[in-house]
Every structure is written in C-alpha cells, then in structure tokens.
Amino acid sequence: MTTDLGPFAPTRHWMRAHPLATDAVLALGALVSMVVGSFADPHGAHGPTFGTRTPEPFSLLLMVLGAAALVFRRRRTRTVLAVTIGLCLLELTTGEPRAPVAMSTVIALYTLASRTDRPTTWRIAVLTMAGLTGVAMLAGPLPWYAQENIGIFAWTGMAAAAGDAVRSRRAFVDAIRERAERAERTREEEARRRVAEERLRIARDLHDVVAHHIALVNVQAGVAAHVMDKRPDQAKEALAHVRDASRSALNELRATVGLLRQSGDPEAPTEPAPGLAVLDELVDTFRHAGLPVKVMVELGRERDPLPAAVDLAAYRVIQEALTNVRKHAGPEVRTEVSVVRVGTSVEVTVLDDGGTAEVAEDDGAGGGHGLLGMRERATALGGSCFTGPRFGGGYRVHAVLPVT
Prior knowledge:
- The protein has helices at 9-17, 19-37, 57-70, 77-94, 102-115, 118-139, 147-227, 232-257, 279-288, 308-328, 357-363, 370-380; strands at residues 40-41, 49-50, 293-298, 335-342, 345-352, 384-389, 395-402.
- The strands form 2 sheets. It has a 5-stranded mixed beta sheet, covered by helices on one side.
- The chain is built from 12 helices and 7 strands.
- The relative contact order is 0.06.
- The chain is α+β, with helices and mostly antiparallel strands and 404 residues long.
C-alpha cells in the first residue's frame, strides 16, 4: 500500500531515514516559537500585543532545556515527557511574566499518545492536564481563573487527543496493508495449489495413457513374435493392433502435453476427452489382446448425460483396472465391467476371477501409481474408490462417482 505525496515525497523519505535530525529541527522550531511567544502580551488594551514584555533569563533557560529534551522525544518518550512537565511546573510557579514553556510538554504528550495504547495515553494525559492546571491555578502568580490556566488544560487535552487519533489512523493503515499482503499471499498459495493439482491430474492422465497402450503393445508384440513363422496372418493382425495402439497413445499424449503449452506456442491438435461413449472401443483393444471382457452399462435413457469430469473419471478407472488385469492376471482370466447409475452417483465395478494378487504389491511396496491414481480421481470428484482381492481369488475395483 503506497501513498502519493507528490513533491513532498523526498522530504518524507528523508525524515523517515533521519529521525534524530528531524526531531532536532522540530525542537529548534519549538524553541523559536516559545521565545517569540514569550515577547507577546495577551492582556493588551486592544488584544494581544507583541514586544510589550520581555521574558526573564530563567524562563529563557527553561525554554532552551525543554526544546533540547524534545530532540530525544522518540527515543525516551516518557523521560522527555517527565522532564518537560518538571520544567513547565517551574515556569508556572516562578515565571512572571509567564513564558510558554508548556509548549514542550504539549509536544512530548502528543508524541507519547501517538506511540502507546489508548488506556495508557489517557491515564497519563489526565494526570498531566490535572496536575499542570491545578498547579497553575493554585500556586502560580496569576488568578486561578486566568485564561492562561484554562489554556494549559485545553492545549494538553488537544495534544493527547491528536496523538491518539494519529495512532489510530496508523493502526488502521497498517491493518489495511497487512490484509492486502495476506490476500496477496493467499492468492499466490491458491495459484500454487491449483498448479500442483493440474500437474497431478496431467500426471494421472499420462500414466493411464502410457500404461494402457504400452501394455497392449507389449502383449500384441509378444503374440506376433510367437506366431510369426507358423501363422503369419495372425502375426500381421497382431502388428496391426500394435500400430493402432501406438497411434492412439501418441494422439492422447499429444493432447495431454498440449495442455502444458504456453500462449503463443504452435497449436497442437487435440481430441475430445475420452468417456463412456467410446468404452466399446477401449474394451475391444483388450479383447484383441486376448482378455475376455463382459460389459454391462446401465445409465438410464431418461437421465441427463454425465458431467464431463465424471465421464472421464469412469473411463480412466475402467482403463486402469483392465490394464492391471492384463498385466497381472493369469492366462484364463475372465473379467466383468459394470457401470450403473444409482441415485445421484455412478458406480463403476471391474471384477476378475484369478491371479491378480500382484496388483496389491504393485500399489504398495512395488511403487506403482495405478491404484493410487484411481483413488485420487474419485476423491477429486467427492467420491471413493475401493480396491482389493476377492474372496476365492481375483481382484475387485469399485468406484463411486457423484454426479451432482
């Protein structure tokens, strides 16, 4: 939070950088004002007159000492106030004519009020006002009802009020500045959090794409190598599946990595995000790889279409689960996939009947990220994902994805 001070900005900066010199200049100005004021007589025939009286040498000494004390008003605030009060009391009880030594007390009291809390300010201010006014009325050479005595009460009260107002304004400005800085930090933290979430989402997509398609390429390449000599037609079909799987992997990788491009970079071709509408194509790739898959989808025709995020999450959960079955299950495994809309949620279930205990090891000590990615996708949508071995053998993946 900045303030435009115009032509006074350099002076303000210099004053903040040299507080002792600033206080010395203030003290000099206060001394000049007190000395000049001591030559004015407030009781002239036609109002206050200048040059009709002369201060005593002792009064001049008190004014010099009071001004000298003001040089240290910010370093020793309470000490300076006590010194100026003592000098003022001496002047009030001995000065005739009375010199304006109380000006140094007014400045010291203002400084204290602007640099301490409100209860302390008003306790000290009331004691100062009552003490100086009482001494001036009872022990001074002037009548108790003289206007100079009332003036002491008024000036010290205004000094305390002005100092308290300045302190309140500084506290208000500091609070606004602190809130602005905190809001800026919050925006930066929110931006970092969103970047981290986006990076995690892209990492999940990359893992799903690479794991799925590379597993299919590996299986089909193994089939082609095995039957190359005896059944070349089947080998050619397997190589065609390898080509299709690798092309799909490249397209999805290009679309995902395109999200990381900066503005101004060449546009990368993108495709719509996959979803349950292309679930049959996904399942066909596994069937061609030798994994029998039975699919059942029941979303209700009268329902609204699924939100894009839920549609993509369901597709990715099925993709990852089938990929794990392909990698870890036995050769005669049978797999079932069901997608059912129940109330305000979509339940995705992938079951196989044998040989997938290795999946749990892959999620734990093996360091795999597939099952963790499925859980993160479901949790990000406010849902849940449970994975684990089935009773009697096999493995089960069950995800609940809220639609609303």
